[in-house]
Amino acid sequence: MHFKNLLILLMFSGLIGCSFLPSSEPSSAEKQMLGKIHQQVVAREFRAAWVATVANINWPLEPGLPVAEQKEHAIRILDTLQQHNFNTVIFQVRPQADALYQSSYEPWSYYLTKEQGKAPEPYYDPLQFWIENAHKRGLKLHAWINPYRAHHHVGGPLSSQSVVNTQPDKVVKLKNGTFWFLPTDKDVVTHTLNTLTELVTRYDLDGIHYDDYFYPYPSYNEGDDFPDAEQYQAYIQAGGTLSVSDWRRNAVNTFVQRLYSTVKEIKPHVLVGISPFGVYRPTQPSTIRGMDQYETLFADAKLWLNEGWLDYFSPQLYWPINQYAQSYPLLLSWWQSQNTQGRHLWPGINALRSFDEAGVDEMVNQIMINRGFLTASPGTVFWNVAALDGSQLMRDVIADGVFQHQALIPETPWIDMPALSPFKLEYQQQAESIVLRWQHTTPEHVAHSLVYTQYGDDWHYQIYTPDVNWLKVNETKEGQSLNAVKVIAVDRLGNQSPATEIAFK
Question: Distance between CA atoms of 179 and 192, rounded to whole angstroms?
Answer without folding.
Answer: 15
